[in-house]
Design goal:
202 residues; alpha+beta; Umud Fragment, subunit A; 8-stranded antiparallel beta sheet; 5-stranded antiparallel beta sheet; 3 helices; 13 strands
């Protein structure tokens, strides 16, 4: 006896149902992957930051939105002149935006409104800061030698900034990241690059 086997055929409505189910599954999978990527980027690579206060004027103003690069400092060391976001050493739940002035192993001296740096290689320089408003004084009298994991930070608006002149050196573990892009307001959009300092001997 010969039996004939016929391939079972789905009814048209069954095919449409399967096709619709597959489409919904693919959309759901895409959404889950997209959310995962956003979370990875948000928590490990970049982070939005909202400027509050006048401590970095005239370069950064109240209510500006920035994008902070959190990955670069895992690949290389912070550089002098970088604008960074730190955790406030006296209350780590607060975040400050400051400019990185002193690097590990350096001695920072503020005297007669000047910033004098003795580098780890024993070179002494008077820091010339082109990003400051004209005739901006760096008030205070301080001399501080940084440990191997410490940084010295200042606000660009020196007369209205709570910074290392007050709370001292900042541990590397308190550095969140480097200011990368200003995204708001649109007319002040900018990608920030490293500072090339003109320097002079004291």
């Amino acid at each position: 006896m010969i039996k004939l086997f016929q391939k079972s055929q789905k009814k048209p409505h069954e095919e449409r149902s399967t096709s619709a189910g597959g489409f919904i599954f693919e959309i759901g999978k895409t959404i889950v992957i997209a959310i995962a990527l956003v979370l990875v980027i948000r928590f490990f690579l970049i982070q939005p930051f909202y400027v509050k206060g006048a401590s970095m004027e005239p370069n950064f103003h109240d209510h500006e939105y920035l994008v902070i690069d959190e990955i670069s400092y895992r690949l290389h060391q912070p550089e002098r002149g970088d604008v960074i976001v730190i955790r406030y050493p006296r209350d780590p739940s607060q975040f400050f935006i400051k400019r990185l002035i002193g690097l590990p192993g350096e001695t920072i001296e503020i005297h007669r409104d000047e910033v004098v740096i003795t580098t780890a290689g024993s070179q002494t320089i008077v820091l010339s800061e082109p990003y400051l408003a004209p005739d901006t004084p760096t008030t205070g009298e301080i001399r501080l030698t940084l440990a191997s994991d410490e940084y010295f930070v200042l606000g660009d608006n020196r007369t209205a900034s709570l910074d290392s002149r007050s709370f001292g050196a900042v541990k590397k573990s308190y550095v969140v990241g480097r200011t990368w892009i200003r995204v708001w307001p649109f007319d002040r959009f900018r990608i920030f690059k490293n500072i090339n300092y003109p320097t002079s001997a004291p």
